[in-house]
User: What shape does this take?
Amino acid sequence: MSDPAILRRKPTQARARERVERILATATEMIAETGSDAMRMTELAGRAGVPIGSLYQYFPDKPAILRTLALAVMERVREGTAAGLKDVTDRQDALARVDALLKSYYELFRNEPVARDIWSGTQSDKALQELDIEDSRENAKLFFDALKHLVPKRDHPRLEAASFLLMQLSGAAVRLAIAVDPEEGDRLIAEYRGMMRRELESLLDI
Assistant: This one.
C-alpha cells in the first residue's frame, strides 16, 4: 500500500503509520455506512481526528483512498489464493481447490459492503482498472505455478495464458454478480463455476 501512485507520502514513523491506518479504518466505516460516493474528505478528516492538511499529505484525493483500500482487498485475495492452491496433488484436487477459491472469492464481495462498493467502481477508475489487471497477473502466476506440474511442458504456454484470462474473467464475473439481484448473482456464479471447471478439465486433459 506504499505505491507512490496511491500514497502521496509514505509514512515512515510509527505515529504517521498509525495516522494513515486510522484514516483508512475511518474511511472503511464511512463506506460501510453510506457508500463511497457519499464520503467527503473533510468529514473523513474530522471523524478520523486528523487535520485536513494531514489527510491530503498522504492521500491527494478520495480515489487514492479507495485504491489503497482496494489494494488491501487484493492482498487478502492473493494470500487466500496462495494458501488455497498450496501443494495441489492431482487434477481432481486442482478442480476442487479452484472451485472452492472461486466460491470464497464471490462470498467475500457479496458479504462485505466495503469490498463490494470499491469493486463496483472499478470500471470508472482507470488507475483501479490497471491495478486490477496487474492483480490478475499476480494471481495468474500463483495459479500457473500451482498447476503446471499437472500438464506436459509443451502445454505450459496455453496454461499460462489461460491462467491470466481465467483470473481476469473471474473478477468480471463476480463484479457482475454483485451488481444484480443476489438470487440472480448466485445463478450467474454457479454458471461461471461450471464454465471454469470445464475449461480446467480441458487444460488438465481430464
The chain has two domains: 14-60, 70-204. Confidence is low (pLDDT under 50) at residues 1-5. The domain at 70-204 is CATH 1.10.357 (Tetracycline Repressor; domain 2). The two ends are 40 Å apart (CA to CA).
